[in-house]
Design brief:
Elements (H helix, E strand, L loop, with lengths): L5 H8 L5 H12 L1 H5 L3 H8 L3 H10 L5 H13 L15 H21 L3 H12 L4 E5 L2 H13 L6 E3 L3 H9 L6 E5 L6 H12 L3 E6 L5 H5 L2 E4 L10 H23 L1 H16 L4
Parallel strand pairs: 1-2, 1-3, 3-4, 4-5
């Protein structure tokens, strides 16, 4: 989480925070400037909490302590590249609405890029390359991303599998072996079906890669490798919809990296695919 801003850290962990931690988080997000200029005792007193509670909150976000946390707030406050996303309102014109939706999409991808851990990506690439087969899983909106991933990786030298039906996905998971890899996509990381699939994967000792927006989710805790995507929620467009664009970018990054790592086999696969597809065109 070293590349995450304070806002992004709070957002990614918020759902899994305790009630007191959420109280602090809400206060910080609503009073960035004030918090960055106050002492830990002043803030704790205003919230009716012990100093140690706020200190532990800053540690949970990945900072060494309150001083480190304040420095990050000050940096964020004066960084011109960091701005609070403008929410869409009923008074916005059609042009403004369109611009804000595009801005939210761009920001989701930019935020995801900022938090890239290259070692984690390398681990995911190695797991996929060294597996006998990679099977993509996704439920609901994540199913579309899983399908796109499958469609993309069919062009790679890696044998891949995918099914749209949730029951067939569970059946696929039950047939994985220790030499296979499951790639599960879930924005929340709490889907009952996704967790059932992940548990079957672990029972079969197959490798598990998870792509989610919540690094502390139950699904992420089961994974061998966790890839994080960011999202921006706007009116009538939930986080899960926005997260698809950043998820697709993560998949694209893995795909291109894998294709370049084994150029000869990748080119052979592409030639076969293109030849087969060319026969469908006039």
């Amino acid at each position: 989480m070293k590349n995450l801003t304070v806002r992004m850290r709070i957002k990614s962990l918020y759902r899994d925070m305790s009630s007191k931690e959420k109280l602090i988080a809400d206060y910080v997000l609503d009073n960035i400037k004030k918090v960055s200029r106050s002492s830990i005792s002043e803030i704790s007193s205003e919230l009716g909490l012990a100093d140690s509670t706020f200190f532990q909150f800053s540690r949970k976000l990945g900072y060494n302590g309150f001083k480190d946390f304040k420095i990050a707030l000050l940096t964020e406050e004066f960084d011109p590249e960091i701005s609070i996303h403008e929410k869409i309102s009923s008074s916005d014109s059609e042009v403004t609405i369109i611009e804000k939706v595009f801005d939210a999409s761009v920001k989701a991808i930019e935020d995801t890029k900022k938090i890239i851990d290259f070692d984690t990506y390398k681990s995911a690439v190695n797991l996929m390359i060294n597996s006998n087969r990679v099977t993509f899983f996704g439920l609901g909106g994540s199913n579309a991303v899983a399908l796109d991933s499958y469609h993309k990786f069919l062009r790679s030298p890696i044998p891949v599998n995918y099914a749209s039906d949730s029951h067939i996905q569970i059946m696929n998971a039950s047939l994985l072996t220790s030499k296979d890899c499951a790639f599960v996509i879930s924005h929340t990381g709490t889907s009952i079906e996704a967790l059932k699939i992940a548990n079957l994967v672990k029972e079969n000792k197959a490798k598990l890669i998870v792509l989610t927006s919540y690094p502390l989710s139950p699904l992420a805790k089961l994974a061998d490798v966790v890839l994080i995507s960011c999202s921006e929620e706007t009116t009538y467009r939930s986080e899960s919809l926005s997260s698809r664009l950043s998820q697709l970018s993560v998949i694209d990054a893995l795909f291109v990296t894998i294709m370049f790592k084994n150029g000869k086999k990748s080119n052979e696969s592409l030639k076969k695919i293109r030849k087969a597809i060319s026969n469908t065109k006039e």
